[in-house]
Amino acid sequence: MSENQASAEPRIVLLGPPGAGKGTQSSNIEATFGVPQVTTGDALRANKDLETDHGTPREYMDAGELVPDPVVNEIVVEALSNTEGFVLDGYPRNLAQTEYLDEMTDVDVVPLLQASEEELTRRLTGRRVCPECGATYHVEFEPPEEEGVCGECGSELTQREDDSEETVRERIRVYEESTEPVVDFYRESGELVEVNGENSPEEVWKSLREAIERNV
Ligand code: AP5
Ligand code: MG
Ligand code: ZN
Fold it and tell me: Whole-model pTM?
């Protein structure tokens, strides 16, 4: 245990651009460290047409823009209210959310998954997801046994609406503009750990796991 009294259950913020592998790796973290995976993108996708004071999440998500902070903050407050440890995937995404989280809780380690823009685009445009159970595949890198069919539950696989080449480009731009300042925040506060996200999912997991174990 470090001198700043890290909690028994790790509190992890997983950062990285769209397609870096946050979802893939935060599932590993949940399974290995026993902390809940809190993915704001999944929570928003499950409520895409919910009317809020700021319109529906869909209006922002399908354009690759950030959903307004009050909507997203509420999801996170609720998700963290009953747990000591967690892995946050996709939050915080701008400095206002970072300050909000900082008021809410301490964090132990902030791994940043890195990959080139070319690799991110290939991963996102080739991603296929199961609308029933949420399993994620890639046509080339992680293909299901039977083409187009979920190996977990047998449902027909689909593409996320924001995984078109044009929207991917906008999501990467939004990441650079709004989320890179978050990376700088955690670099300055000392919690950031950079992890090469370009290797195979297994190799990335090995480095990520070591980085977490060294820091909690
Ligand atoms: P969100 O769902 O968080 O999307 P994202 O950040 O763009 O990230 P992705 O989920 O696309 O990628 P990932 O890093 O999880 O990669 P994955 O593991 O799937 O957010 C979506 C939208 O919701 C936002 O645009 C915004 O509108 C809204 N939103 C969410 N949070 C918000 C917030 N805090 N504030 C405001 N708005 C918010 O991997 C990608 C693919 O690559 C898969 O096919 C996978 O199989 C494959 N793959 C993974 N790892 C590897 C590897 N090592 N090698 C080869 N292939 C790999
Ligand atoms: Mg994801
Ligand atoms: Zn499935």
Answer: 0.95
CATH number of the domain bearing residue 178? 3.40.50.300
**Element holding 203 (H helix, E strand):** helix 201-215
How confident is the model over 173-212, as pLDDT tens digits? 999 999 999 999 999 999 999 999 999 999 999 999 999 9
CB within 5 A of ion ligand 2: which residues?
Answer: 23
Number of domains the chain contains: 1
* Ligand 1 within 6 A of CB of 123: yes
Cβ-Cβ contacts under 8 Å for 26 (sequence gap 6 or more) = 14, 37, 39, 87, 89
- Alpha-carbon distance of 106 to 3, in angstroms, equals 14
